[in-house]
């Protein structure tokens, strides 16, 4: 057991897999010499050398293309897109190429690759460096989508993503990089497509992702003081999606809330709400409620950003009001 | 800056004529077996594409298709020079490049017809022909992106020390998209064993490339920005393509990095099946049709003493093969409905939840 930050866990997860498998290589802007602008790849260049840990130009299409071409010819690359907002300049590689090539070639091409990225808000970076874009990615058949919320999960899910034979977009939350957690010693390997119940409760199910997980847990603590026993589920993986855990919890509590950092329209919670209504309508004791960032770009000023991102207080108030009505 | 389009009416631009002399490479050091193989490939590509067009007119080929008629010498020349485990990356205009790697005609034609015996079981179609076992790593329909992917395959070859080279074909229109420039810089910086081949057929889709490009040689004039040599070749002379290919492949295998080749050619038809190509001056079309890569090569072989009857035999064998492929493609079963739901994921399925 050791205390590790979320950002250190990223490097540990990648290192764990690079030690195990020579085919694992890392590319991205400033990932080698500088150890990453978010310091998530510190030490990898020293341990694995310049052949396996490579600084690239600012050329996101070139980065993702290199990862894809390498993956289809025997390597298992990890590529970094520094801020997830930058996917907008290389989305073609994700949507048209990585996602579809296996299907279009009738299974001839396998793409074991991971694209890691700094995602999410709360750091006052403004509208072009703060977005939560997991919901863009989950809309594309052929892309797996992972968002860990704890250091242990970062390691285990990174290992699972690297070992997976499909393209995985690995969303690290920038607002969690400094968060610390107890991490077991030795190799950690998790599985994609499994949600985790972070807190058990009988009255309401709160489903959250990334930075919203600690906020949902804080909200649950606040609710407990008001006599409401909330269960908090960390989705962790949007594709594949562990609906069994989510719907099982809903079956027990009868109320479902999603806490989403993405702007309102077509956020991941909308899909979960849709599934819940289709399959568990008679388990519901009241309306499903989605707590999201409003449908606005993220403002830069701290007071404004705090206003629009879902807070623990907003989550607690929303759940409390819904259960009392 | 004033571009040519503001100086003239659409379709009335200055014409570009093909080379005059055909005998420049008669004495080239290429053995006759290789030359006859290239001739056979040229015939395969030509007759295959004509048949694909006919089947389109019979409404058996659906959607769209982009033919290489008139541009076959580039794929034939490179195909002959590449080693079996080298990688090809092509664009949506990829039928000829697929045949060049030794893929047989039946699965390619069946793919165009959307049949189960198609190269990808009908799931990719004309624009995405892929045969990994032949080194045909795919045909990509978003121009430029595949140049970055070819870099990745070249990087992998470099990393594994395999000696393989990735060859990436694209049109003149691709030279104005961002990925072209990202890919070239990336390849140059990492000295990747990759060869970029611009098939400059003078038109990006429906517009003269000269009218919308700041330089006159769309690929070669950009080479110096990436510390590469400007290489412009006659893309209608299979021997010139072959000799160039051998040279740049060797350079890549030596570890001396990427090359950028601009092969000037002309498509006999429009951009895609829906395009009659009326924006091209008639005198230009006529001149290039007279400088047909298959006819040019046949005349060379005759000058070198190959009996015309030998070439006629090849022509007939290819014609029979195209007929057989046509029959086999038309007789192919439709894809099973279940196949629409396979191979989204590496586990073979399409499930996204438990």
| Tally of distinct domains of chain B | 1
Count helical runs of chain A: 11
Low-confidence blocks of residues of chain B: none
Average pLDDT figure of chain A: 98
The total count of strands of chain A amounts to: 14
Q: Could you state the order of secondary-structure elements of chain A as H and E?
A: EHEHEHEHEHEHEEEEHEEHEHEHH
| Domain unit count of chain A | 2
Helix content of chain B: 25-40%
Mean pLDDT of chain B: 96
SSE topology string of chain B: HHEHHEHEHEEEHEHEHHH
CATH architecture of chain B: 3-Layer(aba) Sandwich
Class of chain B, according to the CATH hierarchy? Alpha Beta
- Largest interface (CB < 8 Å): A-B, 49 and 54 residues
**Beta-strand content estimate of chain A:** 15-25%
Overall 3D shape of chain B: globular
Strand content of chain B: 5-15%
The total beta strand count of chain B reads 8
CATH superfamily of the largest domain in chain A, called what? Thiamin diphosphate (ThDP)-binding fold, Pyr/PP domains
* Range of helix content of chain A: 25-40%
Identify the strand order in the major beta sheet of chain A: 3-2-4-5-7-6-12
What does this structure look like?
The complex is a heterodimer of chains A (325) and B (354). In chain A, β2 (24-28), α2 (44-48) and β3 form a beta-alpha-beta unit. Chain A is of the alpha/beta class and 325 residues long. Chain A has helices spanning 6-20, 44-48, 60-71, 91-104, 134-138, 151-163, 212-225, 243-253, 268-280, 302-308, 312-324, and strands at 2-5, 24-28, 53-55, 76-83, 114-119, 144-146, 168-173, 180-183, 196-199, 204-208, 230-234, 237-239, 256-263, 289-293. In chain A, α1 runs parallel beside α6, α7 crosses α11 (312-324) and α8 (243-253) crosses α9 (268-280). Chain A folds into two domains: 2-183, Thiamin diphosphate (ThDP)-binding fold, Pyr/PP domains (Rossmann fold), CATH 3.40.50; 196-324, Rossmann fold, CATH 3.40.50. Chain A is built from eleven helices and 14 strands. Chain A is globular, with a radius of gyration of 19 Å. Chain B is an alpha/beta fold and 354 residues long. Chain B has one domain (31-325): Thiamin diphosphate (ThDP)-binding fold, Pyr/PP domains (Rossmann fold), CATH 3.40.50. Chain B has eleven helices and eight strands. Chain B has helices spanning 32-57, 72-81, 95-100, 105-112, 145-160, 178-189, 220-223, 238-253, 282-290, 293-303, 308-330, and strands spanning 87-91, 136-140, 166-171, 194-200, 203-204, 207-208, 231-234, 259-264. In chain B, the strands form two sheets. In chain B, strands 2-1-3-4-8-7 form a six-stranded parallel β-sheet, with helices on both faces. A two-stranded antiparallel ribbon of chain B has the order 5-6. In chain B, β5 (203-204) and β6 form a beta hairpin. In chain B, α1 packs parallel to α11 and α4 packs across α11 (308-330). The mean pLDDT of chain B is 96. The interface between A and B is large, with 49 and 54 residues.
């Amino acid at each position: 057991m050791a205390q590790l930050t979320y950002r250190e866990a990223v490097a540990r997860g990648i290192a764990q897999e690079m030690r195990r498998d020579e085919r694992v290589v890392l590319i991205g802007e400033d990932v080698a010499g500088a150890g990453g602008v978010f310091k998530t790849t510190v030490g990898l260049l020293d341990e694995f050398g310049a052949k396996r840990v490579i600084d690239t130009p600012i050329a996101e299409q070139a980065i993702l293309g290199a990862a894809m071409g390498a993956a289809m010819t025997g390597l298992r690359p990890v590529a970094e897109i520094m801020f997830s907002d930058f996917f907008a300049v290389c989305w073609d590689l994700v949507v048209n190429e990585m996602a579809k090539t296996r299907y279009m070639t009738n299974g001839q091409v396998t793409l074991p690759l991971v694209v890691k990225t700094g995602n999410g808000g709360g750091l006052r970076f403004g509208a072009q460096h703060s977005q939560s874009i997991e919901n863009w990615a989950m809309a594309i058949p052929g892309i797996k989508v992972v968002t860990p919320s704890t250091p242990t999960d970062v390691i285990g899910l990174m290992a699972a993503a690297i070992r997976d034979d499909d393209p995985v977009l690995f969303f690290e939350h920038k607002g969690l990089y400094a968060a610390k957690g107890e991490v077991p010693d030795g190799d950690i390997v998790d599985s994609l497509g499994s949600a985790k119940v972070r807190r058990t409760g009988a009255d309401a199910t709160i489903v959250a992702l990334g930075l919203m997980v600690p906020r949902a847990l804080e909200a649950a603590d606040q609710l407990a003081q008001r006599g409401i026993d909330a269960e908090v589920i960390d989705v962790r993986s949007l594709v594949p999606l562990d609906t069994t855990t989510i719907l099982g919890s809903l079956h027990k509590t009868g109320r479902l809330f999603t806490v989403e950092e993405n702007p309102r329209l077509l956020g991941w919670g909308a899909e979960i709400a849709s599934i819940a209504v289709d399959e568990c309508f008679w388990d519901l004791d009241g309306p499903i409620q989605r707590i999201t960032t409003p449908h606005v770009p993220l403002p830069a000023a701290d007071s404004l950003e705090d206003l629009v991102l879902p807070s623990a207080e907003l989550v607690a108030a929303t759940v409390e009001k819904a259960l009392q009505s | 800056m004033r571009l040519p389009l503001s100086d003239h009416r659409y379709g009335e631009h200055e014409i570009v004529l093909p080379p005059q002399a055909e005998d420049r490479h008669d004495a080239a050091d290429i053995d006759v077996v290789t030359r006859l193989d290239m001739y056979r490939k040229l015939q395969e590509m030509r007759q295959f594409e004509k048949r694909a067009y006919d089947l389109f007119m019979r409404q058996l080929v659906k959607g769209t298709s982009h033919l290489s008629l008139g541009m076959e010498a580039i794929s034939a020349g490179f195909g002959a020079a590449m080693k079996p485990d080298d990688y090809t990356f092509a664009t949506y205009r990829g039928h000829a490049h697929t045949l060049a790697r030794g893929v047989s005609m039946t699965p390619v034609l069946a793919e165009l017809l959307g049949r189960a015996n198609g190269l990808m079981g009908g799931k990719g179609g004309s624009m995405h022909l892929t045969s990994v076992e032949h080194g045909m790593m795919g045909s990509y329909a978003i121009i430029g992106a595949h140049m970055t992917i070819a870099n990745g395959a070249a990087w992998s070859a470099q990393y594994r020390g395999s000696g393989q080279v990735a060859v990436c074909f694209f049109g003149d229109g691709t030279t104005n998209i961002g990925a072209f420039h990202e890919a070239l810089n990336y390849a140059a910086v990492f000295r990747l064993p990759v060869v970029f081949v611009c098939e400059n057929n003078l038109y990006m889709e429906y517009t003269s490339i000269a009218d919308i490009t700041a330089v006159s040689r769309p690929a070669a004039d950009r080479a110096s920005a990436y510390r590469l040599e400007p290489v412009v070749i006659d893309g209608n002379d299979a021997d010139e393509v072959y000799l160039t290919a051998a040279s740049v492949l060797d350079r890549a295998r030596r570890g001396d990095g990427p090359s950028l080749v601009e092969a000037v050619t002309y498509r006999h038809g429009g951009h895609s099946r829906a395009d009659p190509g009326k924006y091209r001056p008639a005198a230009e079309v006529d001149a290039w049709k007279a400088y047909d890569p298959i006819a040019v090569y046949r005349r060379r072989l005759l000058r070198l003493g190959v009996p015309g009857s030998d070439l006629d035999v090849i022509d007939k064998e290819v014609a029979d093969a195209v007929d057989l492929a046509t029959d086999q493609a038309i007789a192919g079963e439709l894809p099973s409905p279940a196949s629409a739901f396979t191979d989204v994921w590496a586990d073979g399925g399409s499930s996204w939840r438990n």
